[in-house]
């Protein structure tokens, strides 16, 4: 038997609030891409639940692909290094590409991904993030679609994790009593 987590999760965004916002985003995205097919790229693992809910509410045709990048390891401390662990299968040349990410924090991961994907020659490249933490931005990135602006707190649930835990929570919450919490712990 494993020991239960000691951290407490305080609800920030309820299941209902998330569902309402995701359907608004899907409607806006569908309107913006009307008459076009969208290549939706999910960044694993954090975006998996958000992407699954989003694409099922979109009314334009989609092709779905995933990329796994590592920037944080299993802790919450940023390494500052972004690495593509698993790359896309889809070519992007001439395609309308929508990048779907869980959280925009410092922006370093997104900056790297956008530079990388732009070199593949897409016709358009836009960014949809579930949560934006503008307070922590280190590089200028303006996402095209944002679900929620969230405060500078560590959040988990609805796909996002702390050391691989809490991804399954249907709501989003702030993680309290994190071990080793300090100024730069993330
Ligand atoms: P950035 O490169 O600093 O923008 O970090 C973005 C990535 O860090 C996100 O895709 C998340 O995987 C992770 N991340 C940032 N903040 C949080 C958080 O509060 N909870 C869980 N993961 C986070
Ligand atoms: Mg991520």
Automatic annotation (TrEMBL):
Q: Major place of localization?
A: cytoplasm
Can you cite an annotated GO cellular component? cytosol
Q: Where in the cell is it found?
A: Cytoplasm
Pathway membership, UniProt: Purine metabolism; IMP biosynthesis via salvage pathway; IMP from hypoxanthine: step 1/1
Reactions catalysed: IMP + diphosphate = hypoxanthine + 5-phospho-alpha-D-ribose 1-diphosphate; GMP + diphosphate = guanine + 5-phospho-alpha-D-ribose 1-diphosphate
Q: What EC number(s) does the entry state?
A: 2.4.2.8
Q: Name one GO molecular function term.
A: nucleotide binding
Q: Where are the transmembrane segments?
A: none
Q: Which domain of life is it from?
A: Bacteria
Q: What is this protein called?
A: Hypoxanthine phosphoribosyltransferase
- Keywords, alphabetical: Cytoplasm, Glycosyltransferase, Magnesium, Metal-binding, Nucleotide-binding, Purine salvage, Transferase
Q: Which GO terms describe its biological process?
A: GMP salvage; guanine salvage; hypoxanthine metabolic process; IMP salvage; purine ribonucleoside salvage
Record family assignment:
Belongs to the purine/pyrimidine phosphoribosyltransferase family.
Query: Start and end of every Phosphoribosyltransferase domain?
Result: 10-162
**Cofactor(s) needed:** Mg(2+)
Per UniProt, the enzyme's principal EC class comes to transferase
